[in-house]
Design goal:
single chain; 237 residues; alpha/beta; Rossmann fold; DNA polymerase, domain 1; 2 domains; 5-stranded parallel β-sheet; two-stranded antiparallel ribbon; 10 helices; 7 strands
Length: 237
């Protein structure tokens, strides 16, 4: 079996400015003033690291940053939940994503879950609001709420999957599907092969140069994705 670790933002779905609105509102409530700078878009860094960058960019004293960061991180999923209806109406499932998820989910050779820079609560809200959550076993995923260092999430997901399926997962039978340089780095450093999808802010050449094992233009070619995953499956036999 192949463990398939899906990235979420800009790979499966796009939520526009909703995340940034949540960061802005939570920062304002916790710090007591609105931010003048927000996290960069589409980088793939984990939410806890993005929050710390947010505090630094807005000149919050280092002595206060850790306590404030913990308070912001704790509040992010609940505040995002308040935008669930907006996510459902304004959020976008990226082309081919639902079909690709369904195909992998229904193929008995694959174990589909997520490795994401989102906190688990935030990931669940997004996937549920846009009707994708039932294609994934979210209980065995790796989330920013587990560890802010994204490559570490691969081993977390592998261990959880092994506990459920009784199969040891490592680089030979684990694949990340993601859109960013951070997804590529997560696979290379964390112990997974990488299928990069040029659906985000990083183009195909950059993803290939970063070390992705395969690069797809998007997820509309479900057969292409399955072909790559099937090759992976044969290589592990």
């Amino acid at each position: 079996m192949i463990l398939v670790l899906w990235d979420i933002d800009r790979t499966l779905l796009y939520t526009g400015d909703i995340d940034r609105r949540v960061y802005r509102e939570t920062f304002t409530d916790v710090v007591g003033r609105p931010p003048t700078a927000l996290p960069a878009r589409g980088t793939g860094v984990t939410m806890p690291l993005a929050v710390r960058e947010l505090l630094k960019a807005n000149h919050v004293p280092p002595a206060d940053s850790e306590a404030l960061a913990n308070r912001i991180v704790e509040q992010l999923p609940q505040r995002l939940q308040q935008y669930r209806e907006l996510l459902a109406t304004d959020g976008v499932v990226l082309p081919g994503a639902a079909e690709a998820l369904a195909a992998v989910h229904h193929d008995g050779r694959f174990v589909p879950t997520v490795v994401t820079g989102n906190l688990r609560g935030s990931a669940e809200v997004k996937l549920d609001a846009l009707g994708l959550i039932n294609y994934l076993d979210i209980t065995i995923g790796g989330y920013a709420s587990d560890n802010s260092h994204r490559p570490a999430l691969v081993r977390i997901a592998q261990d959880r999957a092994e506990a459920v399926h009784g199969i040891h997962f490592d680089r030979e039978n684990t694949v990340i599907v993601g859109d960013s340089l951070e997804d590529v780095r997560t696979g290379l450093e964390g112990g997974a092969r990488v299928i990069a999808v040029a659906s985000g802010t990083t183009n195909a050449s950059q993803l290939r140069d970063a070390g992705a094992n395969h690069v797809l233009p998007d997820l509309t070619g479900t057969d292409s994705l399955l072909g790559v995953l099937e090759t992976q499956a044969r290589e592990t036999e």
